[in-house]
Specification:
heterodimer, A: 133 residues, mainly beta, OB fold (Dihydrolipoamide Acetyltransferase, E2P), 3-stranded antiparallel β-sheet, B: alpha+beta, Gyrase A, domain 2, 2 domains, 20% helix
Chain lengths: 133, 372
């Protein structure tokens, strides 16, 4: 299975989310876009949230650190963390090569009240990235 | 406010070679090409080239130049021989640091002597404005800003000197540390100094702007078999941090004095009067209230600029000024100011973005190159 980046939704803060139904539940798989990873470069550390943590839209759930800077990770959706990609912090060097499949960070059971209207589609996100240079 | 950013004479080369350009001190500068870590490691293991043309270069000519410089600098330079380079600070009357600078005393092939002051890019305008009225009292001294007429290239690393020896028509290894000379290379004058900002051996070259590309490409070619690469400002920052060197705007600013910044070695206070000397004598008498230290936080998260430093009772006793992962050491390092009373305190903690971690205090620098 390979995730199609053009079908994902994106936050302005560069997280992507793949919304799907799993066992009758709405699940959002969250990662960081290839554009963001390229900008960060030289990743050295990633901090992940605990399983079961309740996140709201825009809440900081972890951080990714490069040589140059620390960037918070913001949740693009609301809901409970149901899976965490525990291997990822030890394999950050592989993240840049495969941000959309290997690079998933957490899965969130999206709460019903959640709205994804403020998220960008791929075209709008690409436009934002182009403007950012 | 949007002002046009300046470009260095090597701008086109950076862009053609993958340089990621960012605004810095009024210039567009390469922060990195491929990766900060690989550029950092190239400098530590072989050698790297840095375009530091954004750095300010001010030339002083005329009788009494040494007296003028002695008046504005914390370091005595009146006795600086031809060929000498000295690090010093320019302070305001209160002893606050306006800039940290390198002064070279050089002689042209036609035996004209002058002093050259290298100032921080971010402070160039401020220093020009600071010095201009002072020069009214030194009518025989002229100051000319050579920054835009020249380029400055640093070549740093264990293999730097050998490659330069092969390339140049003189032997730069004869130049001792903190010495400078003007020499003709490719029929054009170049100011060569054995100085740097990486903790490695190497040279800094000041060349005419129109010669910059030729010298740059020849240096890369001369070190090609060794693995020379160009490095950006990102690696320059991680290299100087490992080497424990302060950076203006981070460790240094107008609200800190050189003694509190651990730069007492660059202050000649005895029997001298200079701008800020009265304030510095007072501080020296009472003893500076802070010390600049190295900290190693536990774990993998880096303490960054602004992170509070706490004592073991949780009181804030200092602040991190620079920090990040050390590519050479493989763990995070940080420079910080802490209260004098906490110098040597080995139970310090750092508040790293909301989490309190233990930090080990170490003496600077974090990295020292092996003796060759």
């Amino acid at each position: 299975m390979s995730r199609d980046e053009s079908k994902l939704l994106y936050a302005e803060s560069h997280e992507w989310v793949d919304l799907a139904q799993e066992d009758g539940k709405a699940v959002g798989t969250i990662g960081l876009s290839g554009f963001a990873l390229e900008q960060l470069n030289d990743l050295v550390y990633m901090e992940l949230p605990e399983l079961g943590r309740e996140l709201s839209v825009g809440e900081e759930f972890g951080e990714v650190e490069s040589v140059k800077a620390v960037s918070p990770l913001y949740s693009p959706v609301s809901g409970k963390v149901i899976a965490v990609h525990e291997d990822l912090p030890e394999r950050l060097e592989e993240l840049n090569d495969d941000p959309y499949d290997f690079g998933w960070i957490v899965k969130v059971e999206v709460s019903e009240a959640n709205s994804v209207e403020s998220l960008l589609d791929h075209a709008a996100y690409q436009k934002q990235c182009a403007e950012a240079g | 406010m949007t002002t046009e950013l300046a470009k260095t004479p090597l701008d086109a080369w950076h862009r053609a070679n993958g340089g990621k350009m960012v605004p810095f001190a009024g210039y567009e500068m390469p922060v990195q090409y491929e990766s900060i870590v690989s550029e950092h490691q190239a400098c530590r293991n072989v050698a790297a080239l840095f375009d530091v043309s954004h750095t300010g270069r001010l030339r002083f000519d005329g009788d009494g130049t040494e007296h003028f410089l002695d008046h504005i600098l914390t370091r005595k330079v009146a006795d600086l021989p031809v060929g000498g380079v000295r690090y010093g600070l320019i302070c305001n009357q209160g002893g606050g640091i306006l800039d940290d600078v390198l002064v070279s005393h050089v002689e042209t092939p036609s035996q004209r002597r002058f002093h050259l002051m290298v100032v921080n890019a971010s402070n160039r305008e401020k220093i020009l404005q600071w010095l201009t009225p002072i020069l009214d009292d030194f009518p025989t001294v002229t100051m000319s800003d050579r920054t835009e007429l020249t380029a400055m290239i640093a070549v740093q690393g264990p293999a730097a000197m050998d490659a330069c020896k092969r390339l140049f028509s003189f032997d730069p290894t004869r130049l001792k540390y903190y010495r400078a000379v003007i020499t003709d290379q490719f029929s054009k004058p170049v100011i060569v100094s054995r100085t740097g900002y990486t903790g490695e051996d190497g040279l800094e070259l000041i060349v005419r702007a129109e010669e910059a590309n030729r010298i740059w490409e020849n240096l890369l070619l001369a070190g090609r078999h060794d693995g020379f690469i160009a490095a950006g400002l990102g690696a320059r920052d991680t290299l100087r941090l490992e080497a424990g060197m302060p950076l203006y705007g981070h460790e240094l600013n107008e609200s800190i004095d050189p003694l509190s910044a651990g730069l007492g070695f660059a202050c000649t206070l005895q029997e001298r009067v200079f701008l800020g000397s009265e304030a510095l004598l007072k501080i020296a008498g009472a003893g500076p209230s802070t010390v600049r230290v190295g900290l190693i936080p536990e774990g993998k998260r880096s303490a960054r600029e602004g992170c509070p430093v706490l004592d073991n009772e949780g009181r804030k006793i200092g602040e991190v000024t620079s920090g990040g992962p050390s590519p050479t050491l493989g763990y995070p390092i940080a420079m910080a100011y802490v209260d004098k009373a906490n110098a040597g305190d080995n139970e310090l903690k750092i508040d790293i973005r909301g989490k309190i971690v233990d930090a080990k205090q170490v003496s600077l620098p974090f990295y020292k190159r092996p003796k060759s």
